[in-house]
Amino acid sequence: MSISKAIAADLLEIKAVSLSPSQPFTWASGIKSPIYTDNRVTLAYPEVRNQIEGAFAELIKAEFPEVEVIAGTATAGIPHGAIIADYLKLPFAYIRSKPKDHGAGNQVEGRVAKGQKMVVVEDLISTGGSVLEAVAAAEREGADVLGVVAIFTYELEKASRKFAEAGVKLATLTTYSELIEIAKETGYVTKEELELLKKFKENQETWQD
User: Fold this and answer.
1) Distance CA 170, CA 153 (A)
2) Predicted structure pTM score
3) How far apart are CA 95 and CA 139, in angstroms?
4) Which segment of 19-33, 54-68, 143-157 scores lowest on mean pLDDT?
């Protein structure tokens, strides 16, 4: 089994990702979704956590070999980013969701030199909006952002478009497509539920029709 499928299987096993096509979840945006993800759960499982952080380190070395600093998004990307930075023996910083309203008003916490080559760590890519805001904030404060890495992506067209428009490279450990394939192979979902999951990826608004 590939590392990406192994991580997808782990996410399902520890219930960091839950699938429920028959009784959908409601996202904060109001979207009815057959999938819910909370990758913070991975931190509670040392073996899964170690596999994820090791895979992150290898992914970054392969995709962004020039990296000089790792930055985690607040708050979900911070623990993963800190562990990855330790694996890679690199400096670590984190990016606030908004600038501080006191002191120097920084949005990037840590010591990032102007022009320093940064990789931003996120746990999940949904629409991509929040992490791209973090990238923009880091660039405003002088970082040279090489790209973004994440554990998992829903592979939404909206996110792909946003990353392309921003000119930001994205690399993830596993994907929605790989996860639902694992769910099919392990009997986690029925054939009918699998079709609903595929329809969700194609169109988040009409998948239940």
Assistant:
1) 10
2) 0.95
3) 11
4) 19-33
